[in-house]
Amino acid sequence: MRKLLVLSLFSLSFSCIPIKIAPNIDDYKIVLAKRFKRDLPRQFAFVFEDDKEADEFYHYVNSRFDLDFENVELNVPFTVNGQTYFMSFDEREKVTEVINLLPVVIDGVLNSEGYDPILEDAHSSRNTNWYILITVMDGNFNDCLSPDYPFREEVILFLHALKKEYQSTHHYVEALLKK
Questions:
Q1: Domain map of the chain by residue range?
Q2: Is the pLDDT of residue 91 over 60?
């Protein structure tokens, strides 16, 4: 009985209940954008985790494609193997949120004894991750990241190279010079 009590106390002190879980994307992932965030279009997207500050990808794309801050997020033209494609991107957040049981139990005991709760800030923890979602269309409005698109692999290779360049570039004038 005593072992069971110690085991339950130990597991209670280190347990948490996840409410929302953000995906862990190591390199990139091709997903349906609408499944990632409901307000996005029903197209496939090249998704990667963005560790940089907000709007960094916006400034990178602006510098890399020399857009002069016009239509940076929508229909940015690029060429792969002589074919012109149009890239649009969104920067979105996903949250990982967990409820920590030990502070909830301690505050519950304190409250039942007539004391004010002292661990209210520790009841839950929240971690925010930012993601870049890139959708690509051709001149005929075909989804170029769709599994049945004939030149899908070439587009993915370009986007993967673009992602690597973005993550390794610190001054976006470098991106303009790398063109």
A1: 2-178
A2: yes
